[in-house]
Amino acid sequence: MREVSPIKDVEKIRDVKNLMVDHGDFRDLLIFTLGINAGLRISDILKLKWEDVLYENGKIREEVLVKEKKTGKTKKFPLNDAVIDSIKAYIKKMQSFEMEDWIFPSRKKNGGLKPISRIAAWQMINKYCKSAGIKENVGTHTLRKTFGYHQYKNGTDIAMLQKMLNHSSPKITLRYIGIEREEMNERYKSVNL
Length: 193
Description:
Blueprint: H1 10-22, H2 26-38, H3 42-46, H4 50-53, E1 63-67, E2 74-78, H5 81-93, H6 118-131, H7 140-153, H8 158-165, H9 170-176, H10 179-190
Antiparallel strand pairs: 1-2
């Protein structure tokens, strides 16, 4: 399996989101926006149901509680404005849904009885990122890595980021988000003898 990179350029992130809006793919926009803003693994994103993000009255929850598939740990996180806006846009586009429905139902013949697959999510992310001119390797993990990268670059302490991503050490977190290699390259380039 090839290693994927975070999307480091904020303009490219905007380009991806704008392409999704232009194509009317508000389901895909929400997957992408949630991934880059919550740091969830794609397996945890795809398993979300409406009852996980909405109250019975249809109001969007302030915080979401997810049991991570990989670690078995419970993760609680707030929804930021970008995610809330994406939820609202997606709901507006939907014809109807039940609270126990998958947020990201498959568009295949199963009539939404299953969420989309990791492969379908990968294809969607790859398609939009390539259309936006992103040359680096991308995949479903790109979303989580993008979250981590921008958290770090915006001043989130590495220990806090490690906890947010449920990693076992700061070194793993730095390598995961591509900072270790980036900083090493900067050090090499800084010495011009």
